[in-house]
């Protein structure tokens, strides 16, 4: 049977896949009736398809017996090949379906340290380019790797950050505030009361989430406020509760609202965070031809909170 091919025996490729499915169903059930029920076809249709199959390949694959449909020697040899045909056809259909779905979907990774408005602005901007938008969060290094290998359409990470060969968008500035325990600040709102954090530990998210940006922030704090004991918390949402415990201070996004037991005071512009959109140079365009990086940059620029 090494010379078996759809072209040689006059079967179209779509036809041979359909007939192989029917052939397999009859072989498994050993019954034309049960195979028809399983496939949602009529028994005469299944019987006719098998006769056509046998006629066009020039072989009898079933012997009709009182106890049902019994495979012939040729049928037994062809059955494994038929399973391969059906399996490959199903793999093809699944891959084609996934490709079609991917063309109308956009996946964006947002750094864990990025404020909520960054994720919302990115999702809103992407929604005009695709019917499905998926937004997830992870460490910046993981997001960069996923964009590089094509698992993400784009990523938004905190700068500075290593880029590899990715294309970066413009910088989007996110102002930050100094969070201190309630009752410690007596300064005016126009000045940062560094003296009010005397004796407090620094609560901050883990370094692995954005190493370069983490180092930059802690270095600046050390230069101005001196060396501190560092307490790492899992996510930005845990910073204010740590401050409310009265042993820590933190640097938080300016859009967050003070919680009971905390006070938020201004920080110099040097302490603001910067976020950038990253895309792969070979995958910058959305399905409609729009530049994805530019679209996300426009969305972030419109959404950036005003001072």
From TrEMBL:
Residues 15-72 form the HTH lysR-type domain. The keyword DNA-binding applies. The keyword Lipid metabolism does not apply. SUPFAM superfamilies: Winged helix' DNA-binding domain. One of its GO terms (cellular component) is protein-DNA complex. InterPro entries: LysR_HTH_N, WH-like_DNA-bd_sf, WH_DNA-bd_sf. PROSITE patterns: HTH_LYSR. Pfam families: HTH_1. Keywords: Activator, DNA-binding, Transcription, Transcription regulation. Gene3D superfamilies: Winged helix-like DNA-binding domain superfamily/Winged helix DNA-binding domain. GO terms for molecular function: DNA binding; DNA-binding transcription factor activity. PANTHER family: LYSR FAMILY TRANSCRIPTIONAL REGULATOR, TRANSCRIPTIONAL DUAL REGULATOR HCAR-RELATED. Belongs to the LysR transcriptional regulatory family. This is LysR family transcriptional regulator. It comes from Dietzia timorensis.
